[in-house]
C-alpha cells in the first residue's frame, strides 16, 4: 500500500504522526517558520527556520533561539529528512521539503516566483504533495506584478508630493516596507520610516540586502518626504492626526472592496507576498506534485480550481478574516 503524508488542522497545520507543524500560531508545538513575517514568530520556544529568518526575527526578539537549517543543508529529524529552499519572498523565506517513508511533502506560504533584489532567488523543489497557503485563491482578480505595484507606489508618491501633500504608505513591517523604501529611494523620492521598519532595514543590510535610504520618522512629517508606516497604526493617533496626508494601503486584500472600505484609506495598492490563483497554479506545476492541500481564506475555491485541472486536492482549513489585519 502506498504511504502518503496526511495533515491535521488544530490552530495550525500538523504533519500527522510527527512532531512537525507549519507556521503554527500556537506556542506549545514544534513549528517550522517559513519567514520572519510569521506573526509573533519571536515568541516561539520550539521552532525551526532558516538562519537568515532567525537573524531578522532577532531584530525584534533578541532571545529567539530556534533550530536552524541553512539553505543547502539537510536535517534528520527522526524518520524525516528536512531541507529548506528559498521561496523568493524576503531574506530567509523558505519552502520546506520533508522526505519520509519515500514520499516528499512540500510546504509553501509567502512565495515570489520572480526574482527581485531583496530576497534570494526562488528555488522551487519537486515532490509528491504540496501544502500551500491560498489566501487569495478565491479572488477572480489577477495581481499586478511586483514591478507594476511598486511602479504605482512611486507614481502615487510623486503625484501626492506634487500636490503639496504627504504620501503615507501603510504595510507590513517586514517585506513590503523594505521593497517600498527601496523603490522610492531608487526613484530619488525622500522617505522616512517608522522605528520598527528602520530596525528591520538594518537587519536586511546585515544580511547583504539594500533596502534603500529611510531615516527614522520622528512624529512630524518633513516637507517633501513620503512616510512608510506599519499598517497596524492605521487608526492610531500617529496616522489619524496627520494633516494634509494621503493614505495608501499596501495589501492584496485591497482588492476586496469591503475590506478596503474598512481601512478608510485613499487608495489600495495590491502589493503582496502571496500568490494569486494563477500564481498558485504555476507553483503547483513547478513542484510536479499530484496532490495539493490548501489552507487560508481561499482554500476551498483554489482546491476546486486545481481539481478541475486533474489534481487531487483537499481544503484542509478555510480561515475567516475577522479583522482588518
Average pLDDT across residues? Answer: 94
The low-confidence parts are none
| Span of the ends, CA to CA | 44 Å
CATH topology of the largest domain: Metallo-beta-lactamase, Chain A
How many helical elements? 8
Strand content: 25-35%
Shape designation: globular
Query: Which strand order do you get reading across the main beta sheet?
Result: 7-8-9-10-11-17-18
Main sheet overview = 7 strands, mixed
Overall SS class: alpha/beta
Tell me the name of the CATH class of the largest domain.
Alpha Beta
Q: Quick one: how many beta strands?
A: 18
CATH superfamily of the largest domain: Ribonuclease Z/Hydroxyacylglutathione hydrolase-like
Assign a percent range to the helix content: 10-25%
User: How many separate domains?
Assistant: 2
CATH architecture of the largest domain: 4-Layer Sandwich
Helix and strand run? EEEEEHEEEEEEHEHEHEHEHEHEHE
Structure description:
The structure is a single chain. The chain is α/β, with parallel strands linked by helices. It has two domains: 7-140 and 273-318, Ribonuclease Z/Hydroxyacylglutathione hydrolase-like (Metallo-beta-lactamase, Chain A); 146-269, Rossmann fold (3-Layer(aba) Sandwich). 25% of the residues lie in helices and 25% in strands. It has a seven-stranded mixed beta sheet, with helices on one face. The chain has a six-stranded mixed beta sheet with strand order 1-2-3-4-5-6. The protein has a five-stranded parallel beta sheet with strand order 13-14-12-15-16. The longest helix has 17 residues, at 146-162. The N and C termini lie far apart (44 Å). The mean pLDDT is 94.
Amino acid at each position: 500500500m502506498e504511504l502518503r503524508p496526511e495533515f491535521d488542522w488544530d490552530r495550525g497545520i500538523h504533519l500527522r504522526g510527527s512532531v512537525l507543524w507549519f507556521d503554527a500560531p500556537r506556542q506549545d508545538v514544534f513549528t517550522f517558520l517559513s519567514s520572519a513575517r510569521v506573526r509573533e514568530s519571536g515568541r516561539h520556544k520550539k521552532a525551526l527556520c532558516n538562519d537568515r529568518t532567525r537573524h531578522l526575527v532577532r531584530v525584534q526578539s533578541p532571545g529567539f533561539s530556534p533550530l536552524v537549517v541553512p539553505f543547502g543543508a539537510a536535517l534528520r529529524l527522526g524518520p524525516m529528512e528536512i531541507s529548506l529552499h528559498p521561496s523568493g519572498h524576503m531574506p530567509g523565506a523558505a519552502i520546506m521539503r520533508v522526505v519520509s517513508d519515500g514520499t516528499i511533502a512540500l510546504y509553501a506560504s509567502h512565495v515570489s516566483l520572480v526574482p527581485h533584489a531583496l530576497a534570494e532567488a526562488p528555488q522551487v523543489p519537486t515532490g509528491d504533495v504540496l501544502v500551500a497557503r491560498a489566501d487569495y485563491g478565491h479572488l477572480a482578480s489577477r495581481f499586478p506584478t511586483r514591478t507594476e505595484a511598486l511602479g504605482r507606489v512611486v507614481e502615487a508618491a510623486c503625484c501626492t508630493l506634487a500636490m503639496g501633500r504627504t504620501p503615507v504608505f501603510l504595510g507590513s513591517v517586514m517585506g513590503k516596507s523594505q521593497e517600498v523604501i527601496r523603490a522610492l529611494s531608487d526613484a530619488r523620492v525622500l522617505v522616512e520610516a517608522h522605528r520598527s521598519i528602520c530596525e528591520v532595514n538594518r537587519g536586511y543590510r546585515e544580511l547583504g540586502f539594500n533596502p534603500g535610504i529611510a531615516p527614522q520618522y520622528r512624529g512630524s512629517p518633513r516637507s517633501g518626504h513620503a512616510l512608510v508606516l506599519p499598517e497596524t497604526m492605521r487608526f492610531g493617533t500617529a496616522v489619524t492626526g496627520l494633516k494634509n496626508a494621503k493614505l495608501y494601503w499596501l495589501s492584496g486584500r485591497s482588492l476586496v472592496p469591503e475590506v478596503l472600505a474598512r481601512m478608510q484609506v485613499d487608495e489600495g495598492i495590491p502589493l503582496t507576498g502571496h500568490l494569486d490563483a494563477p500564481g498558485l497554479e504555476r507553483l503547483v506545476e513547478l513542484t510536479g506534485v499530484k496532490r495539493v492541500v490548501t489552507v487560508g481564506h481561499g482554500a476551498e475555491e483554489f482546491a476546486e480550481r486545481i481539481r478541475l485541472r486533474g489534481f487531487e486536492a483537499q481544503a484542509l482549513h478555510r480561515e475567516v478574516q475577522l479583522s482588518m489585519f
